[in-house]
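#random but structural
TW: two for the price of one
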Amino acid sequence: MHLIEPTHLGALEQTQQDPRVVRALFSDFCQVVAHPSGSSALLECPMDLALSYSGTFYVGDRVVAKYTYAATGCERVTLIAGGKTQSVTVAGAAAKAAPNLRPDMAKALGMSVPQAFQPYGSKIHQGMSGTPVH
């Protein structure tokens, strides 16, 4: 499997050859697309940092599938396999079907979950609490 992370932070190119890691991530993606939420509701997507991962799964030299995983905001998986494109928001049934998606993605990248999903580290503030300053 070949992974590419295109972001304005720079690009990460990684080839993951551990079959267990690759199978786990491929299984997660298959589970997500097999369990779409079916909801047509408009979703609010906070913390969309436009972080996405794209990659290709291979068996030998043969391409098995390609994917894009929008990893922030409303997480979304697009999987292209067998000439068919499926795109699903990772919420509801899809999220429950692949509870290890984030850890498996981080493992495939050779990173921790915070490194893989919080590209700015502690510089991101998801909200404020306490007494306002006047």
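TW: number two ↓
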Amino acid sequence: MATGAINAANLLRGPGILYSSPLGTAFPANTVAAGKFATTPFGAGWVALGSTAEGSEFSDQLSVEGIEVAESLYAVVQVSTGREASWTTAFAEVNRTNIKAGLNGGTSTTTGTAGTELTTVGPPALGSEVRNQIGWQSEDDTVRFLGYQVLNVGALGFKFGKGTDLASISIEWKFEKPSTTEPWVMYLAGTERAK
């Protein structure tokens, strides 16, 4: 069987690093040196969300409907009716930042210091949910993703299991279209990613 040339430099592996920030936080400069983005790319206001149970997944789906006529069994033309983009993950680290990301904001207070801290987290009032920006960078520092406005639409789920099963926080962010740009953008660094 004939196969095309395989370019290992174009393979993309690993869960990467997922970031979040409030709306309006400055996006990182997309400076590329030696075919890669900076290894510490996201600046002030961006928080690394830590490890995930099984990585994360992005999808962007085009919705279409066919226009049909009686003389054809096939649609005569397919018409775009919408798009929906989402980012799903399950945070492996249970902390205030990740719980609030799943709640779209909410309230939190911490009292005490030096090992006596007590943190209380509660959901936001209905209608006062907070949108965020998200960012992701691949482990090889050649792919960067930015989402301009997201809201968790999935149920905030904590999975608790036995033995080596770890607790995780489920997230399903849906992208909204900001007034000045498309909902997301992906950047590719280096010669091999430009092919």
